[in-house]
Design a protein that fits this description.
globular; two-stranded antiparallel ribbon; alpha+beta; 682 residues; 54% helix; single chain; five-stranded mixed sheet; 6% strand
């Protein structure tokens, strides 16, 4: 009986914590189906109401509808990316078209649309506050962008395409997850030259976990792949691992070549139904950029500024590598990390292995949480009673400086076969004010894939992993500090090209001595990071900044190319990608290698025609951090302004309005270029 399903009623737990000990895979499908049934009934009641449509009985009522469905999907989707077994994936395959049809049935409900349109057309904005006005606009625009204005055959075709797109993106995502977990590079004692102790320990641990005591194992998980490419003296093995990574999903059972093309073409057809020339034009209407031309203007401006510097960096690196080898060297893509690490070390006497001992995970966690305490007055108290979905997950109760509940934070640090690669933040529940006026606080989860502890050492992070922690923690703060009325506008529910601003802002602190001094201690001796080592880290922060930027631009160009097609594409995917990024390629294309087949950000992760947003947001956050550098990086008044004008406001106002309220003007690109050493320091 559905009444016995754990999702049927709100969880009777402290703070609404998820009762993972009582949730099984068998609960999800019936709960989703019942949630759809209840949501549909609520929507029908709104659509068929005999009362005149008003903001309260139509727009707000729609916002509040679907509580049970939200409850189950709030758990289901995070589990699908962080703890998915074959059974959960099978459920998602069955439910994806069902949910697509359900949500289409709402936006394509003619009676409901006429009520929404009536409220919009007769909306007296002066009677309502800024959040109400934004909810009105977002609801109306959401219906329009989801086909409500379509008629007859076009409406039916939209419904069909939307369902197909849901199925295709799910297939792409699952193919990528399954393919990545299959790749393994087994090593013998003869294959280990150059690898530091931390990489050797991790590879030995991975082999032991597979039942092998006589070998070492390297996988495509970042904590395994990145150190091997950076340190291994075995060029042949670096090439082998590189080809494994960059040929993912290009053949066999989990091939995504046809899938990604179908996704791009399906999106194009949807855009055309909406009266747009391409999907990017359709998608960018709901962003700060507004149109493809603005995106290309930014990408091209950065290309023109950074590319000459990147070319000089590559010439210098080639000369360095030739000197190391005592003969001319042509640097291939599988050589870049190896030689750039050596060059950086030679220039600054700094590398990841020197710093790892000072970035023990529990100390880094204290430092990251301490940052939020100092900036925003938050406290993080371990909650050992809360249920978790995996034994490695840690839970914290988050309170403000007065002890008032802010939310709960679930932290999941390490790779496993059932988890996607990368790092992300999501929520089991988002913040909102309920009908009784209660402030429902968020349940936030941080998911990473950090270097695991071994039998001999705790988890010791690289600088890049510390940056990743701070980045995702920025997203978490955006959720936790939300003070909004409506769930659909709270936290990170902002324009895609603004959502990375709080997260990338946080990364700046990793290169600030005042922040590092608060937590970085040697895991064995307890000694702080030596001052001269911090100085070398800070001096090295601009190393290869142009290469990193140009590489990121390449991803942006690839994304925009797939979503700027104006005719269905049936050509060769490899040729398409190589042409899209040709102006910013550091290396000649390698046969059989492609990014697109496992580029989950744009083909299944919500960043379609939006990957440029990382650089767009970087421009804004660098400009914002400049303000902190002027006032003091922990200045209480500046932190309060950042909190009140940006972090707490979610999507309740236009991002530029929020930013200008904090900064007093629009952002400028100068700060980003100065930070990267592209423009002279003022």
């Amino acid at each position: 009986m559905i009444e016995n399903n754990i999702f049927y009623k709100p969880f009777k737990t402290t703070g609404g914590a998820i009762p993972f000990d009582r949730i099984t895979n068998a609960d999800f499908e019936p709960a989703i189906r019942q949630g759809i049934k209840e949501h549909d009934a609520e929507v029908q009641a709104i659509a068929q109401s005999g009362e005149e449509a008003t903001f309260e009985n139509t727009i707000v009522a729609l916002e509040r509808a679907g509580a049970m469905l939200n409850r189950v999907l709030g758990v289901f989707y995070p589990m699908l990316s962080a703890n998915a077994d074959d059974e959960l994936m099978a459920i998602s395959e069955r439910m994806a078209p069902v949910m697509s049809e359900h949500f289409n049935s709402i936006t394509l409900n003619e009676q409901l649309w006429q009520r929404v349109k009536h409220v919009h057309d007769h909306f007296d904005a002066e009677r309502y506050d800024v959040e109400d006005r934004m909810l009105m606009r977002e609801t109306y625009d959401g219906f329009v962008r989801s086909g409500a204005n379509l008629q007859g055959a076009d409406r039916d075709r939209y419904r069909e395409l939307s369902k197909r797109l849901t199925e295709l993106t799910l297939k792409f995502d699952q193919n990528a997850l399954k393919e990545t977990s299959q790749y393994e590079l087994w090593l013998t004692a003869d294959d280990l030259s150059g690898l530091p102790e931390s990489a050797l320990d991790a590879a030995k641990q991975a082999a032991k976990n597979k039942g092998r005591e006589d070998a070492w194992l390297v996988t495509l998980d970042a904590p395994s792949y990145v150190p091997f490419m950076k340190y291994s003296d075995r060029r042949d093995l670096r090439e082998k691992l590189y080809l494994m990574y960059n040929r993912q999903c290009t053949s066999g059972e989990y091939c995504n070549l046809d899938v990604l093309r179908d996704i791009a073409n399906t999106r194009l057809e949807i855009a055309r139904l909406m009266g747009c020339k391409c999907y990017a034009e359709y998608k960018l209407q709901h962003t700060m950029a507004q149109k493809p031309e603005a995106v290309y203007d930014m990408l091209n401006q950065l290309r023109d500024a950074y590319l000459p510097v990147e070319r000089n960096e590559m010439k210098r690196l080639t000369a360095f590598a030739s000197g190391v080898e005592g003969k001319p060297v042509e640097i291939m893509p599988w050589d870049y990390s190896y030689y750039s690490n050596k060059e950086k070390d030679s220039m600054f006497d700094i590398n990841d292995e020197l710093l790892r001992p000072y970035f023990e995970l529990s100390q880094v966690t204290k430092g990251v949480f301490g940052f939020a305490t100092r900036m925003y007055g938050l406290r993080f108290v371990p909650n050992h009673d809360a249920q978790v979905f995996h034994p490695e997950v840690e839970v914290y109760d988050v309170t403000d400086e007065d002890g008032k509940a802010v939310g709960m934070l679930y932290v999941d640090f390490f790779p496993r076969a059932t988890k996607q690669s990368g790092a992300w933040m999501t929520s089991f529940r988002e913040q909102y004010i309920d009908d009784s006026g209660n402030d429902v606080r968020p349940l936030v989860t941080l998911t990473m894939n950090f270097t695991r502890p071994t039998y001999t050492k705790p988890s010791l992070l690289t600088v890049r992993e510390v940056e990743t922690f701070m980045h995702e923690f920025g997203h978490a703060l955006h959720q936790l500090l939300s003070r909004c009325k409506y769930q659909s506008l709270s936290g990170t529910n902002v324009y895609r090209d603004f959502v990375e601003v709080p997260s990338q802002f946080n990364e700046n602190y990793v290169y600030e001595r005042e922040f590092l001094d608060s937590f970085a201690r040697h895991y064995q001796t307890g000694e702080p990071v030596p001052q001269e080592l911090i100085d070398r880290l800070l001096a090295s922060s601009q190393y290869a900044a142009a290469y990193a930027c140009v590489r990121q631009l390449g991803f942006g160009y690839i994304d925009m190319a797939w979503h700027s097609i104006m005719e269905p594409y049936q050509g060769d995917d490899f040729t398409f990608e190589h042409h899209a990024a040709k102006d910013v390629q550091a290396f000649e294309p390698v046969e059989g290698c492609i990014m697109s087949t496992h580029f989950t950000h744009i083909f299944s992760g919500g960043y379609a025609a939006g990957y440029y947003g990382y650089k767009w947001a970087e421009m804004i956050e660098c400009d914002a951090f400049d303000k902190f550098k002027e006032d003091g990086i922990f200045n209480p008044a500046t932190a309060r302004s950042w909190l009140e004008n940006v972090l707490s406001r979610g999507g309740t106002e236009a991002p530029m309005t929020l930013y200008k309220r904090f900064r007093g003007r629009e952002p400028r690109i100068d700060a980003m270029m100065r930070r990267d050493g592209i423009a002279p320091t003022e």
